[in-house]
Amino acid sequence: MNPRWNGQFSRFDLVAKTSASCRSVVRVRDIEIGGSDFVVMAGPCAVESEDQVLRTAEAVAEAGARILRGGAYKPRSSPYAFQGLGVEGLKILHKARQATGLAIVTEAMSEEDVELVAEYADIMQVGTRSMENYSLLEALGHCGRPVLLKRGMTATLEELLCSAQIVATAGNPDVILCERGIRTFETSTRNTLDIAAVPVLKTVSHLPVIVDPSHAAGVSCLVPALARAAAVIGADGLLVEVHPHPEQALSDGEQSLSFREFRDMMDDLEPYLAIRQQARQLRPQLVAAGGTH
Ligand code: PEP
Ligand code: MN
Predict the structure, then answer these.
(1) What is the pTM of this model?
(2) Ligand 1: does its nearest atom lie under 6 Å from the Cβ of 33?
């Protein structure tokens, strides 16, 4: 471990990796995130209708996703953008879980929403704009569900781990970290995927780390390449946006994959997942960046 990192991160005692700590595995029903499986979470940016969500759930499940994503409460930068269906959206997600057996990840935007969202969600998503919403993080500490904590778009990794520590200190050790791209001077992508964040986080923390290539890329054609990078660098999974008709999506259509594109991405990931698996067996510390103790 780089000695600089040690001092920087070790104060986050509940989420920092120590020589004695094991990697944490977050269990959601029969799914293990942070174990040997590469767990794909996929679905629309926003829940728009029952038909849209059910069709997407079936398509992504068939292609190998284990968890359905979809926002019922949408944090949008523009007040003119679609703000989500709220509780109606949560009920649609619930139906999709019953129909397909997929677990559900969906966002809670404020502490007031936490109890209601937790009734429907298997994993509570914290969006990039909420990473520093400390009352929300506190409330998630006792929601009884794992938390998917997305990195703030201008947050350092130290700040991300600070937020993870807040959730853990409030009573919830089941936190999954998500690198979703950060703001830089580059304009050809919506955000810059900080791919180095994955091995850094896996070195300094025992928490699982996933990558969201959709919000990093901002355009669907780049999503499969970023997903492959995530797989070989040792991420524990992906969060990917998929829509039956990306061109008609009410939010983030440009970066959403069609069903066919998602299937192709999953197929094309296979050889990379095989490399990941081989590397884990040969040199666990290579992929896990610091090893499984
Ligand atoms: C999302 O996952 O749809 C989302 C709003 O992501 P982020 O918070 O990373 O922008
Ligand atoms: Mn989105």
Answers:
(1) 0.96
(2) no
Helices (H), the chain: 3-9, 50-63, 87-100, 114-120, 134-140, 157-169, 197-204, 213-217, 223-233, 259-282, 284-288
Nearest to 220 by CA among 251, 182, 258, 192: 258
The protein residue with its alpha carbon nearest to ligand 1, atom 5, reads 127
Residue of the CA atom closest to atom 1 of ligand 1: 45
107 C-alpha to ligand 1 centroid (Å): 9
Return the pLDDT at 77: 83
What is the position in ligand 1's atom list of the atom closest to the CA of 71?
3
For the segment 175-218, what is each residue's pLDDT rounded down to a tens digit?
Answer: 999 999 999 999 999 999 999 999 999 999 999 999 999 999 99
Identify the three-state secondary structure at position 80: coil
Number of Cβ atoms within 10 Å of the Cβ of 188: 9
Among 46-55, 77-86, 149-158, 184-193, the least confident range = 77-86
Tell whether ligand 1 has an atom less than 6 A from the beta carbon of residue 180: yes
Within a 10 A sphere around the Cβ of 172, how many other Cβ atoms?
23
Number of other residues whose CB lies within 10 A of the CB of residue 18:
10
User: Does the C-beta of 45 come closer than 6 Å to ligand 1?
Assistant: yes
